[in-house]
Model the fold of this input.
Amino acid sequence: MILRVIMAAYESVIKAIGLDNWCAEPDENAPMSMAQFLARNGNGNPDNSDPILPFPSLDTLHEVCSSIPQTRDLTAWVEDSFLSIKDGLKLVLDPLTQPLSWMLDSALYVFTTVPWWILIPLLVLLTWCVTRRRGVTIFVAAVFIFFGVIDHLEVALQTLAIIFVCTGLSVLLGVPIGIMMSRSDRMQRLTVPVLDLLQTLPSFVYLIPLIFLFSVTESKLYGIAIILYAIVPIIRLTDLGIRLVDRDVIEAADAFGMNARQKLLGVELPLALPNIMAGVNQTIMMSLAMVVIASLVSAPGLGVLVLRGIRNLELGVGIVAGLGIVLLAVVLDRSSKAALSRLHAHKPNQ
Amino acid sequence: MSDPKIRIRNLYKIFGARAGKYLPHVLSGMGKSELLESHGHALGLNNINIDMQAGEISVIMGLSGSGKSTLIRHINRLIEPTSGEILLDGQDIMRFSQADLLQTRQKSMSMVFQNFALLPHRTVLQNVSMGLKVQGVTKEIREHEGRKWLLRVGLKGHESQYPNQLSGGMQQRVGIARALTSNSDILLMDEAFSALDPLIRTDMQDLLLELQTELHKTIVFITHDLDEALKLADHLVILKDGAVVQQGKPQHILLNPSDPYIEEFIADINRARVLRVRSIMRHSNLGNEYSGTIDPEANLEQVIGMAQGDMSARFEVIENNQRIGEVDVALLMDALVPYRPDTAKR
Ligand SMILES: Nc1ncnc2c1ncn2[C@@H]1O[C@H](COP(=O)(O)OP(=O)(O)OP(=O)(O)O)[C@@H](O)[C@H]1O
Ligand SMILES: [Mg+2]
Done:
């Protein structure tokens, strides 16, 4: 009864501002309201109890005046406009990102076909080369042996392969972007909101448009998702690192007539290197976080096992794989931190 | 006098986003504090005109904030002027292209900084040869040159150390060696010795004077310390609030301060040690009984020592075996009393 009155009130408001001519007759084919949409999916209570005072939302006003769009029109509009630019976007992005698929596929191929007795010593040697720490190297070797013993070596190596490729590309793209940001305040003002967005968007959300753009069977789909997520810290820290370089030293470089390139390569980047390496460390950790979520869109590796644990309620499988990811995280964190601290210490004997 | 090496003409610098708009205000006489209060722009330099001769040490002195650093950075255009000319060997560096400017900075002038500004990730030798590296000189030659100058400033054996392993005084020696290695004829020194303790500082001043006797560079030296200025300067420029208050030979400024600001500055100086016979001697002849002869470069302390308490002592000033004047104790006493505002009134 009261509802009638309220709706009548909304109607008279519309009349009062002279919109009643514009309101068309109700359309039988209109999409359902948001409430109906939620009810159909089984969550949200079917509305048998009308609220006393319905919020003048799009759906409510639509009942009074059918020319006012419904909320579902909005989501449909987003969908339509995305679909309408999709083909054009795909035409540009597809060839542009194709190398990413090749890289991921070949890295996965290498990491899964090279025999373990070559690959593991190589990886341990790599650890030694970047860290020069006996402790870290032994730990890394032990972790690989452990993975081998519990038959998780292959999946762990798949995860590692994806991380290597994605981190490498993030650095390759992120450092130049960071340098450009440090050069111009305007560029920084434009870039920071984008970085904030990438960092705060729930990671599932940017899988959605990617699924529309690329087929789920292509590895670049998860590659892009991981890079978008992991590239943020390396950009931020490159920018910060260069901006933090001592003004006096830059001035000296200018006073001795260095050109922009000499200054960048000889002064700014070397002095920003500790910060950049801290960015690399964070980028690695973030790609590891994302590679698990990327299993939803066919990324191989430990994440697949975690997902299986959730989907099939296979508790043990999920937890062991989860702990495996933790181990991998510790390995990567320790190695990159050790490499970082090697930069911090100025070694007079070198 | 020959053409000056560096000539600064009508140089103005206003800091702020709309400097050009306020230039007419300054040209028509608005001062530093007024500009800052009513328009929020800082007046860095106000109508600077200085000639710096080749082979001389020009010292620019002033209190903190008087615009010394701003001025020296105009000479190599690390700061762009709002208006005015900077002539280098008669050429206006404001007309230089970017490439010319880089060439000039590489080959014609080098700079020594108050905070040393060495590259922390490079060894001492790499730092010293940095200027030559920028010019594209081969490693062999530049390291040879670098070692030579390191030896000259007394840092042999420290070549492969890093700057943070050296003391402040040693780091500034590296800074000086770096400036000398690039083999430019102009040396810009912004408070190069201000961060050093007094003893090291005296050492470094002596080192600079010693190097200068062989190298004859054109040196622009900035300091806020009058003793240092008087010790080093061939030409002294005193800045206040971005404007030149007085410039000229340091002895001349000491004896004829043109402004109360300068009188205040020079009030506490040990005049006996700074003033030289040449600046106070009398050219005329009051008699020919002399207690002895003296060099025109001797300072008044030496004269007092030679007089041995005899108030009527009189000395003949001899240069190159020629009599050029005479000096007596009365003249000396007169010169020792600073020219104070209150005595000036009487
Ligand atoms: N980038 C700038 N923006 C605005 N004002 C500036 C800037 N640089 C210098 N100034 C102003 O110009 C004036 C002169 O500064 P400058 O650094 O040349 O002084 P200084 O004589 O070198 O002092 P110090 O002995 O402390 O080094 C100061 O009042 C300062 O506020
Ligand atoms: Mg200064």
Notes: The mean pLDDT of chain B is 90. The domain at 54-83+98-266 of chain B is CATH 3.40.50.300 (Rossmann fold). Chain B has 17 helices and 13 strands.
